[in-house]
Design brief:
The chain contains 5 helices and 2 strands; from the N terminus they run αβαβααα. It starts with about 25 loop residues before the first helix and ends with a helix. By secondary structure, it is mostly helical.
């Protein structure tokens, strides 16, 4: 794969002010401190770069979305090369192990 074909999943642009180069935690902190009062629908830049993400889907509640979906770094838990069935198999196995 050419490095230009691999999406950047390390740094993100604020969907409100377009400030760039936030890591995931930095983007969340920035948005919560600088834009918490904003109500317009925006595309989550973290989700948009994921293989399953839709770069056109706007979140109705962006701050709730951040709190629910981005409490952890995806790189810790996700292999971007695995297909959906393999990921689902591992998630089910891991959830059974935790109970």
């Amino acid at each position: 794969l050419d490095s230009r074909d691999v999406p950047n999943r390390q740094t993100f642009t604020c969907p409100y002010c377009r400030r760039r180069n936030f890591d995931q935690g930095g983007l969340i902190d920035h948005c919560q401190k600088q834009h918490k009062q904003r109500q317009e629908k925006v595309v989550c830049p973290i989700c948009a770069c994921m293989p399953w993400g839709d770069p056109n889907r706007k979140s109705v509640d962006f701050f709730g979305h951040l709190e629910r979906r981005h409490k952890f770094e995806y790189d810790t838990y996700v292999s971007y090369e695995d297909d959906e069935e393999e990921i689902l198999r591992r998630v089910i196995a891991e959830s059974m192990r935790l109970t």
